[in-house]
Amino acid sequence: MDVLDLERLTPAARRILDAAEELFYEHGITAVGVDLVAERSGVTKRTLYDRFGSKQQLVAAYLLERDRRWRALVEQLHRDAPTPVARVLAPFDALETWLEGAVRGCAFVNALAELPDDDHPGRRVVLAEKQWLLELFSGSLHAGGFPEADSLALQLMCLHEGVLSLRGTAPGVDAVAAARSAATRLLEG
Q1: What global pTM score does this model have?
Q2: Which of 24, 51, 107, 170 has the smallest C-beta neighbourhood within 10 Å, fewest atoms?
Q3: What secondary structure letter does DSSP report for 6?
């Protein structure tokens, strides 16, 4: 299966991907085998392999699906933002919604820790998502006329990623509000 063809999933493939997303996020990629994904989705292992080809491709599809939903949320908030500052802060605003129920932090960072092989298709999805976010910050800052936009984009990226790390390690902390406040101060400075 071509990982990029997620819009045309069969009902069985959609069940597989939904089960994989829940299991991979809750238990980790390496801890979950295709037997469990097949069982949870109500299909045979053969069907899983027919639809996705391999566990590597299933992992990449899982990450790509999350990436598409994340980007859609951020892009919507970015488009609807009334000011240049609000456009830059859109990824922080998206975190409020995105992190509801997320107890293990960032699925992309978690996956990156489990996928050390540079050639793993899932690792490439994660790295592309992080690069996209950095470029979104940079592009928004340049478009808004902020000085030292590239340096500021990296600082914002660090704040944003810090929120995701703290979600898994310090669940009682309101890291989103703290990071958004710090980002606002950076933009005003």
Answers
A1: 0.90
A2: 170
A3: G
